[in-house]
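Batch manifest, entry 17 of 40.
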Amino acid sequence: MPETTLLFIGGLAAQELLFILLFFAVPFGLWLGALIDLLRSNFTDSITKLIWLVTIIFVPVLGAILYLLIGRKQKVKTVKL
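Output type: C-alpha cells
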C-alpha cells in the first residue's frame, strides 16, 4: 500500500479536514459563541440587544466579530458580593 493512504480519514485527506475546520467550524463556533453570550447577557435597554441579535444572525461572521469587539462593552456589569 502506498503511504498516502494513511492520510485519509473516511475519504477525506488531512488538507480537506484543515480546510473544513478553518472555513466552516471556526466561523460557526465564533458565531455560536457570540450568539450564546448575547442571549445570556443583560443590556441597559432591550433595543440594543435586539440590534446585536439581528446583526449576528444576518451578518454571521462579521456580526459576531463586531459583537465580541464592541458589543460586549455595552453589557450591564453586575457586581457579585
